Amino acid sequence: MFDTTALRVLALSCVLVVSGCGGSAVKKADPVSAPPTTSMAGVPADVVMTRPAAYKPSPSSPDILIQSPAPLSPAVVSRAARTKGVTDTEQFSMATFYREEDSITYAAVDPATFRHFTPGPTATLNELWDRLADGEIALRSDLRQVLAGPGDFVTLGNDDNAQKAHIAAYAPLVDRSKIGALLNERWAARLRMPEGNALLVSTGVRDPAPVLKKLRSAFGKQLSVTLLAPNVDPNQALAAVLTGGSIAQAVGSFTYTANTDGTVNPEARWVREYIRTKTVPVLGTVTCNKAMLPSLENALRRIEKEGLAAKIHRGEYGGCYVPRFIARDPSRGLSFHTFGTALDLNVPGNLRGTVGEIDRRVVNIFIRCGFNWGGTWNYTDPMHFELARLVPSC
């Protein structure tokens, strides 16, 4: 067992050189820190792997990210590596889970090699990568309040059967990316991630823009090929891969394009396969993910049977399948509504940050039928219900 006190708070005065289009930029490093000392009990034995050798400097800039809902083929990885201007690549697994309404992008990686794509203070901290190999999780420091739970464990999804991982440290991870958490690669199978579906591409000191153009020309719209920068390119396909439990497997994965108004366009294939329009009790016509419709119908029938139908106002229904970013802000990731497994009820009287006016008997029925309720979140969203588990009857 590794002593967590070894990961002391580092007062870092060094700087990071951030390679990007047109040259380099210098910024202050975020601190690397550890959570309070706690037991390692609860780390699954099958995710423990050999600790990496001591760090040897060979930094690679994370300039371009290639991602797909499915594992990348050896031919794709080889072609990317052989593209003129590419100096290094790193294949890993990448997906998303939700914690309340926060979209968390995370990666399952080889600690020995992925560390070279992280900022200097993070890459050189051997204790962090040892603990990642031991089966723990590293988080960006801004996610401490969002993700850290009792005993310094992170719940990797909203489902009741979601996996948990113990926090190794809070640290800067991959510059200019949305990756908020790192696990070792043995977690990928346990979390049912598409293994090896992502590739970081480094162009060293060269401008990544010409390489980006070549990679997009080579792979077209079959893959997501993005420059690791804060702006979303509305013409480029992106990938959405949801994990976190049985619900995540039922809703499917897809690519999508983004619009300038904060909405998104999931690929037509996924929409045809998973999104359905149906007439249900109380609400009338709804458009949702097919995985959620049986649970929604069960809940609404129970609400009718108990004489509570009038407590749901059909004219104040806020929708189910609404493909967009959270708060229409690309930096916050996709809304759960994009997957068609959430719905908003009685919107005007149940705004975010309030206790909400919705009848708690209605809430209790939805919970019994497999839904989580946003009214219990740290920043409440009492209009919001999302599918968390499949309940055959309620």
Brief summary:
The protein has 394 residues and is α+β, with helices and mostly antiparallel strands.
Note down, in words, how this protein is organized.
With 394 residues, this protein is α+β, with helices and mostly antiparallel strands. The chain has two domains: 4-240, no CATH class; 274-387, Muramoyl-pentapeptide Carboxypeptidase, domain 2 (2-Layer Sandwich). It is 20% helix and 25% strand. The protein has helices at 74-82, 111-114, 120-123, 126-133, 144-147, 187-190, 209-219, 246-251, 268-274, 293-305, 360-368, and strands at residues 15-20, 23-28, 64-67, 88-99, 102-109, 137-139, 153-155, 164-170, 179-184, 198-202, 224-227, 238-240, 254-258, 264-266, 275-280, 284-289, 342-344, 371-373, 384-387. Helix 10 (293-305) packs across helix 11 (360-368). The protein is globular and about 65 Å long. The two termini are 44 Å apart. Residues 1-30 and 34-39 have low confidence and may be disordered.
End-to-end gap: 44 Å
Radius of gyration over all CA atoms, rounded: 22 Å
Please report the number of helical segments.
11
Strand content: 15-25%
Number of distinct beta strands: 19
Report low-confidence residues grouped into runs of 5 or more.
1-30, 34-39
Largest sheet: 9 strands, mixed
The percentage helix is: 10-25%
Q: Given the helix and strand composition, which structural class is it? A: alpha+beta
Q: What count of domains describes the coordinates?
A: 2
Element-by-element helix/strand order: EEEHEEHHHEHEEEHEHEEHEEHEEHEHEE
Question: Biggest sheet, strands in spatial order?
Answer: 7-8-6-9-5-4-10-3-11
Whole-number average pLDDT?
84
Name the overall outline: globular
